[in-house]
Design brief:
Helix 7 crosses helix 8. Helix content is 43%, strand content 6%. The chain has a 4-stranded parallel beta sheet with strand order 1-2-3-4. The chain has a single domain, classed as TIM Barrel (Alpha-Beta Barrel). The chain has 268 residues and is mainly alpha-helical. The protein is globular, with a radius of gyration of 18 Å.
């Protein structure tokens, strides 16, 4: 979802637009996705924002909830990984750190995790052959965000964001992601309990950072009270992510706008 929009900022096309381009002309789709990310990075950098929670690497499946919707870059792991990398590299070229999400995959979710906890009934074997693959392909990225989903075949009790089994065995080992890991917003309906308990749970499971996004001051104080300064592996990962920040590379904005102009017009 684009938080900055008209009349001050442009409305950029969603992932589905680039997926459609890719299906007809893969090279054009990849170039458009990278340039679209460069344009967004320029807007963000002008505001002093150096991180963006994108790209979405989730693989939608028939019958799943449409919460991922037009944010998806396709329905095959190969295409999602290719377009996701183009987007991530576009952000990095523009001086903005990308956040791959929602690791290890939200595409099969049967519910909107903003409202309730989705259950993903697929086996680990199936997930390793599909949903996990785009994240494995981009496991070199500096930042990732977890999915608030329950995967009973791996952990029948705890949602992924609060599951040591999923964070350590799946995200860190199977997927091979060693970057800075943040949870999705702990204020979402998929999680239960007081905010301080939610924060302790995700940190205890292995997340490096807690996201709390409502702006509720009482909740913010509760979360802050149970979090500490980064140290150990989390501090190392934070430093490594910061080290990926660079000054924006040379960029022809007019050319980029012309290249994806149709998509801009469609979403104005």
């Amino acid at each position: 979802m684009q938080r900055l929009g008209p009349p001050v900022w442009r409305r950029y096309p969603p992932g589905r637009y680039f997926a459609d381009l890719y299906s007809h002309d893969p090279e054009r789709g990849l170039q458009a996705a990278r340039l679209g990310a460069r344009l967004i990075a320029r807007d963000l950098a002008a505001l002093g924002i150096t991180v963006n929670c994108a790209p979405v690497l989730d693989l939608p499946v028939p019958g799943a909830h449409d919460i991922i919707g037009d944010r998806a870059y396709g329905i095959t792991a190969l295409q999602v990984a290719a377009l996701g990398r183009a987007v991530a590299e576009g952000y990095l070229e523009g001086g903005v750190l990308p956040v791959i999400k929602h690791i290890p995959g939200h595409g099969r979710a049967c519910a909107d995790s903003h409202a309730s906890l989705p259950v993903i009934d697929a086996s680990r074997h199936v997930l390793e052959g599909s949903d996990f693959r785009p994240f494995r392909a981009l496991n070199d990225m500096p930042l990732a965000m977890t999915a608030h989903v329950l995967i009973p075949d791996i952990d029948p009790v705890l949602p992924a964001s609060a599951s040591p089994a999923i964070i350590q065995d799946v995200i860190r080992e199977t997927i091979g992601f060693d970057g800075l890991l943040m949870c999705d917003d702990i204020g979402m309906g998929a999680l239960a309990g007081p905010m301080e308990e939610r924060a302790r749970a995700v940190l205890g499971a292995g997340c490096d950072l807690v996201l709390h996004c409502s702006g509720n001051l009482t909740e913010m104080a509760a979360v802050a009270a149970v979090t500490a300064e980064l140290d150990g592996a989390a501090a190392r990962r934070f430093a490594a992510a910061r080290g990926r920040l660079a000054d924006p590379a040379e960029f022809d904005e007019a050319l980029a706008l012309a290249f994806i102009g149709e998509g801009l017009a469609e979403t104005a």
